[in-house]
From TrEMBL:
Molecular function in Gene Ontology: RNA-directed DNA polymerase activity
SUPFAM superfamilies, A to Z: DNA/RNA polymerases
Protein name as catalogued: RNA-directed DNA polymerase from transposon X-element
Keywords: Nucleotidyltransferase, RNA-directed DNA polymerase, Transferase
All copies of domain Reverse transcriptase, residue ranges: 366-487
Pfam families reported in the protein's UniProt record: RVT_1
Superkingdom field: Eukaryota
Transmembrane portions of the chain: none
Length: 655
C-alpha cells in the first residue's frame, strides 16, 4: 500500500468544511457542487485530490475504490490508495571479460614460455583427446585467473553517444531558460529560451550527423554491418528469438528445459524421418565416379599457418561448448599457435578427430510462421572455434587435391574458388539463349533437396571418397570426423544420427512450360527467371526493394550529411542494381528506363533536389554518378577480363 503525502492547500476554512461534507462524487447541498467540480476550480488546480481523481492517474494505478476521507485531519494528512503493481522488469545481463587486449598479451606472454612451452614438448606422449583436454584446462585456468568472466548489468536506455559535455551544458541552460520563461511569462524571456533551443537543436543535428558519418564509414563494403548500423539509427529493434511456448499435439510446453528437449529431439530426428520416406534402393556410384589410383594424405601443418588462421578469425563469431571465444584465440595467437599446431598434427597422424570438437551448441532460429511451432525453426550449430580452424586446414588440402586431379564436376559451382552465383546463372542463361536462337524449347526443373546435409549417407560418401584416392589414414580421419557427432540444446545433449538418402519433395515439382504445376517465373540464386527471359519479374522485385531503400534515405536526410547518404546508398541500394546484372542485362528498354528512374530518385533524395525537369541530370552530375546502363557495361567488361586469362570456371571459358 503506497502512501502519498501532500499539502492540500485549501483556500479557506469554508472550502475545507465543504470538502469534508461531500461524499465521493455526490453533490454538496451547501455549495451545489460535486467533489470533482470543486477540485477542478482554478483556485484548487494543484491539489493532491486532483492527482488522485484525474483519469490518466486512475487508469494507470487501476484504483478499485474511491478515496475515503477522514473527518478529523489537518491540511498535511496522509492519503492512501491501492496500487496494482506488475513487478520489476527483468534486467539485461551481459557476460564480459574484465581484461583489455594489451593486458591480455602481457599475461599470455608471461605464461607462454614456461607452461605452454613445456606442454608442447610433452604433447607427443599423449593421444589427441588427452592433449586437447590438457590444453583447454591450462588455457581456461589462465583465462579465469587474469580475465575472469563477470555478469555486467546493461542499461535499458543507453546514453546517446553523440551527446558531449558541451551539448549537455547547453541543454541544461535551455531547460533553465524555459523554466524562467514559464514563470515570468514575458516576451524577453521567451525569446531567450527560443534562441537557446535553436542553438541546442543545431548542435544536436551536427553531432548526430558526424557520429552517423563515422559509423557508416566503418561499415562501408560490409552489407551485414551496414544494415545493423542503419537499423540502429532508425530505431529498428530485431525481434528476439526467445521461445517461451511450444505446442506439441495441442499440448503447450512452457518449461525452458522441456522446450530445449523438444527442439533437440526434433532437430536430431528430422533428417532420418525424411530419409525414411525415400526409396532405399541400391546406388552403384562406381558407374559415374572414375577410380583414382593415387592416394591422398593430409600433410602436417606449420605454426605459421595456424597463426595466420587464428589471426584471421572474426571476433563476432559465437563460441562453442568449450566457451573459448574467437576474440580470445585471436589475441592469444602469437602464444598458442605452436601448441595448437602440435594438437592438429597429432590428430592428422593418429587419424582421430577430437571428440569434444564434434559437439555442437544448437540455437533455434525462427524462419517464418507462428513462433510456437517446431517446424518454423531451423537449427544453427555452433562448433568450437578451434574445431573450425582445424576444419579449414583439412578443407584447403582436400580441395586442392580434388582440383588438381580434376575430380569435381564442371557443373559444380557451389563452395569452389572462382565460382559464384553469377557464373552459375551465366552458364544456365547462355545455354537457354542458345536453344532459343536455334528454335528449341527449354525444359527446366529446379530441385530443392530438403535437409540435404542432414540426410547424406555417410557410407556412400566415404565410399566415393575412397574411389577418389582418399584412402587409409586420410579416410579414417574423415570417418572419425563424421562419426559420433553430438549436439546440445541448452542443457540437453543427444547423439545425431543421419542415414540413407536425400529427401526430395516430390509433391513440389515446378516445370516451366508444362500445364501441370506450371509456373511462369521462379526464383533461383536470388534472381527471378521468367519463361520468356524478359526479366520483368526480377526488375519488379528490384523496384520494390529500391523503393523501400529510398524511403530509408529520406529518413536519413534530416540529420545525415551528403557523404553519409552516399555511403548508405552504396552499401544498401546499389548492390541490388548490380547483383547478377551480367545475366539480366538483356532486358528491354522499358525495364531499363524504370531502373534509371529509380536511380535518379536516389540522386535527387541525396542532393535534396525537387522532382522537376533537369534536376535528375543535375543531381547525377553533382554526385559524379554514371547511368546504370554504363555501370552494367563496365561490370560485364570486368567479367570478360576474368574469362580471357582463365580466371573463370571452365564452363565460361572462351575456346
Amino acid at each position: 500500500m503506497p502512501m502519498k503525502v501532500s499539502d492540500f492547500r485549501l483556500p479557506s476554512r469554508r472550502d475545507f468544511r465543504a470538502l469534508l461534507a461531500c461524499e465521493s462524487h455526490e453533490d454538496d447541498s451547501r455549495t451545489g457542487r460535486s467533489k470533482r467540480e470543486w477540485i477542478q476550480e482554478g483556485s484548487c488546480e494543484n491539489l493532491m485530490w486532483q492527482l488522485i481523481y484525474s483519469a490518466p492517474f486512475n487508469e494507470q494505478l487501476k484504483l478499485s475504490a474511491g478515496v475515503t476521507l477522514i473527518t478529523k485531519f489537518h491540511d498535511m494528512s496522509t492519503v492512501t490508495f491501492p496500487w496494482q503493481y506488475n513487478g520489476l522488469q527483468a534486467l539485461s545481463i551481459q557476460r564480459v571479460f574484465l581484461l583489455q587486449k594489451v593486458l591480455f598479451d602481457v599475461v599470455l606472454h608471461s605464461v607462454g614460455v614456461s607452461e605452454y612451452g613445456h606442454y608442447t614438448v610433452q604433447a607427443e606422449e599423449t593421444d589427441v583427446n588427452a592433449m586437447w583436454s590438457c590444453w583447454k584446462t591450462m588455457f581456461l585456468e589462465v583465462l579465469d585467473s587474469h580475465a575472469p568472466i563477470r555478469l555486467k548489468r546493461v542499461r535499458k536506455r543507453p546514453s546517446l553517444p553523440w551527446l558531449s559535455k558541451d551539448i549537455r551544458d547547453k541543454m541544461l541552460e535551455r531547460d533553465r531558460l524555459k523554466r524562467v520563461a514559464m514563470t515570468k511569462n514575458d516576451d524577453v524571456n521567451w525569446a531567450k529560451y527560443r534562441s537557446s533551443r535553436n542553438i541546442v537543436n543545431v548542435a544536436l543535428r551536427k553531432a548526430k550527423s558526424a557520429f552517423y558519418a563515422s559509423q557508416i564509414e566503418n561499415v562501408t563494403g560490409n552489407p551485414k554491418k551496414a544494415w545493423k548500423t542503419v537499423n540502429d539509427i532508425l530505431g529498428r529493434k530485431q525481434r528476439a528469438d526467445d521461445v517461451r511456448e511450444i505446442k506439441i499435439n495441442d499440448h503447450s510446453v512452457t518449461s525452458p528445459e522441456e522446450i530445449a528437449e523438444k527442439f533437440n529431439d526434433y532437430f536430431t530426428s528430422i533428417g532420418p524421418s525424411l530419409a525414411e520416406n525415400m526409396d532405399n534402393s541400391e546406388c552403384n556410384y562406381s558407374q559415374f565416379v572414375n577410380r583414382v589410383d593415387g592416394i591422398f594424405h593430409f600433410q602436417p601443418v606449420s605454426s605459421s599457418q595456424v597463426y595466420k588462421l587464428l589471426n584471421s578469425l572474426s571476433v563476432c563469431k559465437a563460441s562453442g561448448i568449450d566457451k573459448i571465444s574467437a576474440k580470445v584465440l585471436k589475441w592469444a595467437a602469437p602464444v598458442v599457435s605452436e601448441s595448437l599446431m602440435q594438437i592438429f598434427n597429432r590428430s592428422i597422424v593418429s587419424h582421430v578427430f577430437p571428440n569434444e570438437w564434434k559437439v555442437a551448441r544448437v540455437n533455434a532460429l525462427h524462419k517464418k510462421g507462428p513462433r510456437n511451432m517446431l517446424d518454423n525453426y531451423r537449427p544453427i550449430s555452433i562448433l568450437p572455434v578451434v574445431s573450425k580452424v582445424f576444419e579449414r586446414i583439412l578443407y584447403k588440402q582436400l580441395v586442392e587435391y580434388l582440383d588438381a586431379e580434376n575430380l569435381l564436376s564442371e557443373h559444380q559451382f557451389g563452395f569452389r574458388c572462382s565460382h559464384s552465383t553469377v557464373s552459375a546463372q551465366l552458364d544456365c542463361s547462355n545455354e537457354w539463349y542458345c536453344n532459343m536462337d536455334r528454335g528449341l524449347y527449354n525444359l527446366v526443373i529446379f530441385l530443392d533437396l530438403q535437409k540435404a546435409f542432414d540426410t547424406v549417407n555417410h557410407v556412400l560418401l566415404l565410399g566415393k571418397l575412397e574411389a577418389c584416392g582418399i584412402r587409409d589414414d586420410a579416410l579414417n580421419l574423415l570417418a572419425s570426423y563424421l562419426a559420433d557427432r553430438k549436439q546440445t540444446c541448452q542443457s540437453i545433449c543427444s547423439s545425431v544420427h543421419v542415414k540413407d538418402w536425400l529427401s526430395f519433395p516430390w509433391n513440389q515439382i515446378y516445370v516451366l512450360g508444362v500445364i501441370r504445376s506450371r509456373v511462369r517465373d521462379t526464383k533461383i540464386l536470388g534472381v527471378y527467371i521468367d519463361e520468356s527471359l524478359t526479366w520483368s519479374k526480377h526488375i519488379e522485385e528490384i523496384a520494390k526493394t529500391i523503393t523501400a531503400g529510398i524511403s530509408g534515405l529520406k529518413r536519413f536526410r534530416d540529420f545525415a550529411s551528403r557523404d553519409v547518404l552516399v555511403s548508405v546508398y552504396n552499401a544498401l541500394i546499389m548492390p541490388h542494381f548490380d547483383y547478377c546484372c551480367e545475366v539480366w542485362d538483356s532486358l528491354g528498354s522499358v525495364l531499363a528506363e524504370r531502373l534509371e528512374k529509380l536511380h535518379n530518385r536516389c540522386a535527387r533524395v541525396i542532393m535534396r533536389y525537387k522532382n522537376e525537369i533537369g534536376q535528375s541530370e543535375l543531381a547525377l552530375r553533382d554526385l559524379g554518378w554514371s547511368l546504370l546502363s554504363e555501370r552494367r557495361f563496365h561490370i560485364k567488361a570486368r567479367q570478360m577480363f576474368k574469362v580471357l586469362p582463365d580466371l573463370a570456371p571452365v564452363r565460361l571459358l572462351i575456346s
